[in-house]
Amino acid sequence: TPDRASFEMLHTALLGFGLDSLLGDRAGYLPASRDVLLQEFYLILPKERTVLQVADGVTPDEQVVSACRVLRERGYSLAIDDFDRRPELLPLATLADVVRVDYTGTPEAERRAIVREFLPRKVRLLAANVDTRLQFADAAREGFTHFQGYFFAEPELLSTPDVPAYKRNCM
To answer: pTM here?
Structure first.
């Protein structure tokens, strides 16, 4: 579930590895479920290093949009995951710092329309699932400025000893 993924990411980042060892000096993207947004669990993370990525499947109702507005006012960055111009996503799109587009799963005409819509607003356009040099070149030519995918790095499985119960209770 989105909640479980969000909470596991928080737990691992803060108690397991620590943000510095995971991110270095870069910002991290946290999948933000409805509960993470509404209950403001993200406040334990440094705003200058955190991008809250509204998880795919979170319904952008009035409460979620309001919570996103508040997190932006607090200085956190907001990303929309797998943006595809559905009308129900438009209220979130007006708040977004980053729009993440599934490069291989979104038709070229749709990608170009997204770029035309967001580039003038200085929104960072992230092409996800970029797996080849050609896809990277095409995405850059289309106007995307940020990229994720196997072309850049293979996922790496990290492990750490389990966090002792007494440390978990301190959270």
So the answer is: 0.79
Q: How far apart are CA 136 and CA 141, in angstroms?
A: 9
Both tokens of 8, joined, read 């596991």
Check if the beta carbon of residue 79 is closer than 8 Å to that of residue 56.
no
Q: In this structure, are residues 50 and 24 in contact, taking their beta carbons and an 8 Å threshold?
A: no
Higher pLDDT, 61 or 15: 61
> Is pLDDT at 81 greater than 70 in this prediction?
yes
Residue with tokens 């301190």: 170
d(CA 121, CA 119) in angstroms, rounded, equals 5
Average pLDDT for 31-49: 88
Q: Residues 58, 61, 64, 69: is their CA dihedral positive or negative?
A: positive
* Angle at CA of residue 12, ends 164 and 22, nearest 5°: 125
- Match 């790496």 to its residue by tokens: 156
Q: Which string of DSSP letters, residue by residue, matches 4-23?
A: HHHHHHHHIIIIII-HHHHH
Q: Which residue in 51, 4, 61 sits closest to 30, CA to CA? A: 51
Express as a percent the part of the chain with pLDDT over 70: 77
Q: Give the mean pLDDT of 137-160.
A: 84
H helices then E strands: how many in the chain?
8, 6
3-state SS, residue 72:
helix
For residue 33 the two structure tokens come to 């479920």
